[in-house]
Amino acid sequence: xxxxxxxxxxxxxxxxxxxxxxxxxxxxxxxxxxxxxxxxxxxxxxxxxxxxxxxxxxxxxxxxxxxxxxxxxxxxxxxxxxxxxxxxxxxxxxxxxxxxxxxxxxxxxxxxxxxxxxxxxxxxxxxxxxxxxxxxxxxxxxxxxxxxxxxxxxxxxxxxxxxxxxxxxxxxxxxxxxxxxxxxxxxxxxxxxxxxxxxxxxxxxxxxxxxxxxxxxxxxxxxxxxxxxxxxxxxxxxxxxxxxxxxxxxxxxxxxxxxxxxxxxxxxxxxxxxxxxxxxxxxxxxxxxxxxxxxxxxxxxxxxxxxxxxxxxxxxxxxxxxxxxxxxxxxxxxxxxxxxxxxxxxxxxxxxxxxxxxxxxxxxxxxxxxxxxxxxxxxxxxxxxxxxxxxxxxxxxxxxxxxxxxxxxxxxxxxxxxxxxxxxxxxxxxxxxxxxxxxxxxxxxxxxxxxxxxxxxxxxxxxxxxxxxxxxxxxxxx
Length: 478
Prior knowledge:
This protein is 47% helix and 19% strand. By secondary structure, it is an alpha+beta fold.
């Protein structure tokens, strides 16, 4: 009996395709491309198995533009290579050569760590450019891609079909679609005949709301943003799997958590009309929506994931893949989605390079405990400002004053002067307290304590969560 064959595949070139014209300025085109890429990553391996007349249970894992399939023999592996090569031909036409699928193949023999290493080395070989190929040293063509080949009706589709005759490999089937063409239901619980994906979209009537419309639904400043997140050291955790079964189980566990919990949170009243899901893979996710709703969404998702890790991952050694890092990038209403996506990619990289288990927001990287403290401090600031009628100028001027305290001062002579100004500035508002002056002073003293840190080498250091809370409260007052 021949050994099983493992096929590992991955979509590459997706970032360049997402940012190529016209998606760089057309939000609908950008959303259509991202939705297409997410669904293609799920459908392609299932269509491969259907084309090889193999049961869907042979699919090990899929999502996030990656998949792992199990084939019974070498003959099917050769047919799989022909299938994926044909798929690349269609992808080249649909994306102007930007997106392609790369894959590696190996026998499922020996220890899983050795098998996984062979798959990884084969994948690196597929990604490595062939310098002997014809035209390798020719000038690169300008990055352009037509949006006509990418269907724009995939987000709300009830089912999806696959065919090499489709311009983009997948399309929404209709009454005239050939019954022999493989298709899968979208949404609901994952099963042999369906694909479970997080697809919630805040609506404006019968169509998804635009970023500008979601910005107008935000409290305070009319801004929107993109929230990106990744599970820390997910790749390390997957590489530590002792068998292909454990690899598949871990991958499916994380994917089902992200898809299920994100969809569940989006159904809550605070987020239903304010948040739209862009993607949710095995280890990462992205949403856009009203900036204030996304800030609360990040805090809630981290809390749920921490509980999930405590209850379901406690038997796994080490801290890998038990924490989550996120970044929230804000934008003006008219900013194209592609530009904010670029910014969110950069901001998430800043957060991950700074630390793990943290959150990048308002130009600061905070630990999750600091973010919770910032949220509580923000509530206290808003309460003080509302009850004692400080006005939005109070928060703006206080924020600028504390930024001056935080600015570099080589000899440290400005610290005392600036802190004295801060004290005088806050005393100006004590006169409005009237009968509740004692409560006012108590709130003010608590804020000063929470926002200012200890001195280090004679320099006053402000807590980053204090500055974030000030900026957050100011945006809510705008």
